[in-house]
Specification:
The complex is a heterodimer of chains A (about 650) and B (about 140). In chain A, strand 6, helix 7 and strand 7 (about 165-170) form a beta-alpha-beta unit. Helix content of chain A is about 30%, strand content about 25%. In chain A, helix 6 packs antiparallel against helix 18 and helix 7 (about 150-160) crosses helix 8 (about 190-205). Chain A has about 650 residues and is an alpha/beta fold. Chain B is mostly helical and about 140 residues long. Chain B has 2 domains: about 10-105, Alpha-helical ferredoxin (Fumarate Reductase Iron-sulfur Protein, Chain B, domain 2), CATH 1.10.1060.10; about 110-135, no CATH class. Chain B has 9 helices and 1 strand. Chain B has helices spanning about 10-25, 35-40, 50-60, 60-65, 70-75, 80-85, 90-105, 115-120, 125-135; one strand spanning about 5. In chain B, helix 1 crosses helix 7 (about 90-105). The radius of gyration of chain B is 17 Å and the shape is globular. The chains are: A alpha/beta (about 650), B mainly alpha (about 140).
Chain lengths: ~650, ~140
């Protein structure tokens, strides 16, 4: 056995705080060490060549690299071993950067710590065993959860590559929040005009199975082999027979709020969500219909010419296998009723950004004429309050949703286009216009459309006759100010949707402190999750505007393709393994496993049936929780055996 | 607690439009970065900074704008106009405020009524300037 030790200086990242030469010399007298060298950048090609040459010339068979975190460069150096015909699991990395040079300032002590860590690694490395990764097959179908613009884009991209793709949408139509928007910044494109062609493409694509009015209820399995149960709710209208004649709607006796118009207009229990809905069909809403029972009410069925209404329709459970999952479950607008001083919910003419979006829309509750909710009058002064519940870690959302500055500016500009003699006033903290052509759009709103911007927060909104009295501050003049307005629009930010929370918990995806799903790496893996085979598209991982969402979704589809394109996948070999002789079948490991990778199975042992833990090698992430939990020491960890860890502890405890 | 009542009516609009007409500048181009005030060598002598004056013109606050000494301190050195990232001729706006005041309330100096001793001490240029102002 011949161990080669390589100390990386990482420029000054490591060498600035650690005496790398001293560390290298400390390893020379250790057992089995043949060579110990320092190199400026071990990860560079000359650095890798240095190791390659030593393997050939000195006959090294194990390699230790003391450098950065293994999450950065373990794959790089494993590949070096593999190329030279060595088992890649005979590589050991010592993290003397993140765990040593970056966190210490005393060079002497940092050097001592690096020597201790390296010594422990040498003793462990001598005990390491060659491991062989397992291979699993891949189902070449994709599942996209959520039918907003993110899900639509991801599904279209995957389908275009040629993968059979299921798009599951909870509501009766795809389109999501974007379908509710009137126009989109900074180009003022009509939202429906740019979205509906994509929606139609989804409906028609031979590789896409669209499951609207459906929810994912169970996900099992692992990368390449997810087993998913989807519940398709009954719509009670046959989409093939329905001709969209609208005869059923006027006869329906149930009148309720229309969520598509943000509850500003009524709809019936039988309805089509909006004119461009895909799938294009009416549906009966089970929860509000008088009873899906012809004895109670069958007015819609009686007038339906093509006999499309079927009260006997039943929900179905669809079971399918998928190789990769794209989570595109989106956002919800922040509940602004939480901001008591703004009076949303109790003052009629204080509305949300999305409500104003519907009021601006030609397909909205006011047919595109700006009218306020209380009396239908055209407001002459509209106040837009930015950051309503955003950038407020004390009480509301701590973060900036980065779309509200732009949509409030768009609202003010659109209002000025529609009401020429109207005044649009924006109260803001900062104007954030980070996007292509966004700053120009903001300047245009002020310069060409006379939108007024006042830097400062609004403290309260009071009713004063049929007007609103707004009190706040103008921090540019250091004055407290008050003014009258006819309508107030609160620019509320984004928060994770209920669907995002539900799917995150179902797929065991970690979320950040604000509830958005955490990316595998915030910069370098923005569409990956920590669960392999599960990818993120759109606002499920944080606030995004439409261009960013579309790019993110295409990224997710591309990353999912890297799995779907494989015939089989390698599973990392550093996973848990059970010593059946020691296992008592107590099941503590089953309960503690965060990935549900362990099950108890009955086995025959000397004529007796006993239960033992069995690890699903594809599901196991090698986290080691089970090993730590097992009372009998029956579950070990390949690549991190007890004797290897004990050798490390022994080295570290010697001074 | 007292609040400054702000409104955006006819009066406010007319004042803003007059300043814009005289200066030839769009005051809404200003996004309040403050570069004009930052580089103005007389900012410390002004009771309101230059950018505050422009903000108040945006808001149409005529009385507050006219009450400040800012535009009288301004020496029209044009540093602000050269440096403005939005390419606003800020000095022209300061000049417009002065013009506005002069047009609205011209100081009626009747030369023939000035005391003799004042006239003796007065430079000729002041007299010429005075005549010009009245005819402008």
């Amino acid at each position: 056995m011949k161990i080669g030790v390589y100390i990386c200086e990482c420029g000054s990242n490591i060498a600035g705080t650690i005496d790398t030469e001293k560390v290298a010399r400390s390893a020379e007298p250790l057992p089995k060490v043949s060579v110990s060298r320092v190199y400026r950048y071990a990860c560079s090609e000359p650095g890798q060549n240095l190791i390659t040459n030593d393997i050939e010339e000195l006959g090294l068979d194990r390699i230790i690299v003391a450098a950065c975190s293994p999450s950065m460069h373990e794959p790089t150096f494993r590949a070096v071993l593999k190329e030279r015909g060595l088992n890649p699991y005979l590589l050991e990395m010592v993290n003397i950067r993140e765990q040593c040079s970056w966190v210490h300032s005393d060079k002497k002590q940092a050097t001592e710590k690096a020597i201790s860590l390296l010594t422990a690694a040498v003793l462990r490395n001598a005990l390491q065993q060659p491991l062989t990764p397992k291979k699993v097959g891949v189902t070449n179908n994709a599942l996209v959860i959520g039918g907003g613009i993110a899900g639509i884009q991801a599904a279209l991209d995957l389908a275009e590559v040629g993968y059979k793709t299921y798009l599951v949408e909870k509501t009766p139509s795809i389109g999501g929040k974007m379908a509710q928007l009137d126009k989109t910044f900074p180009t003022l494109d009509c939202s429906a005009c740019i979205l509906s062609p994509k929606m139609v493409d989804v409906g028609r694509h031979p590789n896409i199975t669209l499951l609207a009015n459906s929810e994912v209820v169970e996900v099992e399995g692992f990368v390449g082999n997810f087993k998913v149960k989807i519940k398709k709710k009954a719509t009670y209208v046959d989409p093939v027979k329905c001709t969209l004649c609208d005869e059923c709607v006027p006869v329906c006796p149930v009148i309720i709020h229309d969520e598509y118009n943000e509850n500003l207009s009524p709809r019936r229990a039988i309805y089509i969500p909006f004119p461009q809905a895909v799938p294009a069909t009416y549906i009966i809403e089970e929860e509000t219909c008088l009873g899906i029972d012809p004895l109670i009410c069958a007015k819609c069925r009686d007038v339906c010419g093509p006999e499309a209404i079927d009260f006997d329709m039943k929900p179905e459970i669809i079971e399918e296998e998928f190789g990769a999952i794209v989570v595109a479950t989106g956002y919800e607008a922040y509940p602004i009723e939480n901001i008591g001083e703004y009076g949303y919910g109790s003052i009629h003419n204080v509305i949300s950004g999305l409500e104003f979006e519907r009021i601006l829309s030609a397909s909205g509750p006011t047919d595109g004429v700006v009218r306020r909710p209380s009396d239908g009058k055209v407001p002459k002064t509209v106040v837009f309050i930015h950051c309503a519940g955003s950038r407020d870690p004390a009480k509301h959302l701590p973060y900036c949703s980065k779309v509200c500055c732009m949509y409030s500016t768009k609202h003010a500009l659109q209002y000025r286009h529609l009401v020429h003699d109207g005044t649009a006033v924006n109260f803001y903290i900062d104007i954030r216009t980070a996007g292509k052509d966004y700053e120009e759009f903001y300047q245009r709103a002020a310069e060409e459309d006379g939108v007024i911007y006042i830097k400062g927060k609004v403290s309260e909104i009071l009713e004063d006759g049929d007007q609103l009295l707004i009190r706040g501050v103008n921090t540019l003049t250091s004055e407290t100010v008050e003014m009258h307005a006819d309508l107030v629009v609160l620019a509320n930010g984004m928060m994770p949707s209920e669907g995002t929370k539900k799917i995150a918990s179902m797929l065991k995806l970690p979320v950040d402190s604000t509830g958005f799903i955490r990316e595998a790496h915030p910069k370098l893996k923005p569409v990956d999750t920590v669960i392999s085979g599960v990818f993120l598209a759109g606002t499920a991982s944080g606030p995004k505007d439409i261009p960013e969402t579309v790019a993110h979704a295409s990224g997710a589809a591309s990353r999912a393709s890297t799995i779907l394109a494989q015939k089989e996948l390698e599973i990392d070999a550093t996973i848990a393994n059970v010593n059946e002789m020691l296992c008592r079948g107590c099941g503590m490991c089953v309960d503690s496993c965060p990935y549900s990778a362990i099950e108890l199975e009955a086995k025959n042992s000397f004529g007796h049936t006993i239960k033992v833990a069995v690890v699903n090698e594809a599901l196991c992430k090698g986290c080691g929780t089970c090993s730590a939990t097992c009372l009998n020491g029956a579950i070990g960890h390949l690549g991190y055996t007890d004797n290897q860890i004990l050798a490390q502890i022994k080295a570290l405890s010697q001074k | 607690m007292s609040y400054e009542y702000i409104k955006f009516g006819k009066e406010e609009r007319e004042f803003r439009e007059k300043i814009e007409e005289i200066s030839g500048e769009n005051v809404f181009s200003c996004y309040q970065c403050g570069k004009c005030s930052a580089g103005c060598m007389f900012s410390d002598k002004m009771d309101r900074t230059v950018n505050q004056q422009i903000h108040r013109i945006q808001m149409g606050q005529k009385e507050k704008v006219l009450a400040a000494n800012t535009h009288w301190i301004c020496a029209s050195c044009l540093t602000c106009s050269v440096r403005c990232p939005r390419d606003i001729d800020v000095a022209a706006i300061m000049e417009a405020i002065r013009e506005y005041i002069l047009r609205e309330e011209p100081e009626k100096i009747i030369v023939s009524e000035l005391p003799k001793e004042v006239l003796e001490r007065l430079p000729n240029i002041a007299l010429v300037g005075n005549f010009r102002k009245m005819t402008g």
